[in-house]
Amino acid sequence: MGFHSKPNIYVGEVNLKVSNLERSIRFYQEVIGFKVVEQTDRKVKLSADGKTVLLSLEQPANVIPKEKNTTGLYHFAVLLPARSDLADIVNHFIKIGLPIGSSDHLVSEALYFSDPDGNGIEIYADRSPEEWTWRGSEVHMTVDPLDFRDLLTEAAQEWKGLPAGTVMGHIHLHVSDLHKAQEFYTKALGFDVVSRLGNQARFLATGRYHHHIGINTWAGEGAPEPSKNSIGLNWFTLIYPSKEAREQAVEQLRSIGSMVHQEKDGFITWDPSGNQILLLV
């Protein structure tokens, strides 16, 4: 889990807008295994270890359904500590009959599905970094079939929810302009391009991880921002290793003309496609 701690920059928390908070809480508790840390009539904070908030949900007033072909969330990705944890949750999904997609990316093994509002979710386990293949500054990733038979030989115990070592592994975003988004995340926020999928997607990371952020134009070149009260991504956090590193990012954001607002706990900015980011330490 060293890729999600100092000295790297990584995603800490994702905040989503949902249409029915109680329904979403049941889903995230019973299907995925999150624990409720704090709850009000319109908001909830969710955790794997009962302390660290990884996901928060809000039910806006006059919420409208998720809008298609807009920028925003493609999926958020929950990283489990071990392959056996992934096997355990596969068995759980089989028992409850949850339809899932899957893939072997060589660097990781992943499951894909959506919450009741259509927000995309990935749950995955990393292979050992010693098994990753780097070609210069880029890591080799594929979209191969997942070998469930082999994976399930790793099942260790009956599923009991998310293990305490679970983190927010990465976030994957729909953007309107791949080149502008890449420049924003690399030149301003400090990420490196570590993988490319033609002219459609980029994968960005620090510390030679396979990716902390994914960006794609699969919603269409020039895709508009969603409505403010639409289901989907509200914001996500990036955790910087020090105040100095965050201040450098803020200065770089201002140098490229990006809006930055200081808040009590950090700084807020928006990528060129309108995805809102909180810069924290």
UniProtKB/TrEMBL annotation:
InterPro entries attached to this UniProt entry: Glyas_Bleomycin-R_OHBP_Dase, Glyas_Fos-R_dOase_dom, Glyoxalase_1_CS, VOC_core
PROSITE patterns, per database record: GLYOXALASE_I_1 (PS00934), VOC (PS51819)
Keywords: Metal-binding
One GO MF term attached to the UniProt entry: lactoylglutathione lyase activity
Domain VOC: 10-126, 167-281
SUPFAM superfamilies documented for this protein: Glyoxalase/Bleomycin resistance protein/Dihydroxybiphenyl dioxygenase (SSF54593)
One Pfam family hit: Glyoxalase
Keyword Metal-binding part of the UniProt annotation: yes
Record-linked PANTHER family: CATECHOL-2,3-DIOXYGENASE
Record's protein name: Glyoxalase
Biological source species: Peribacillus deserti
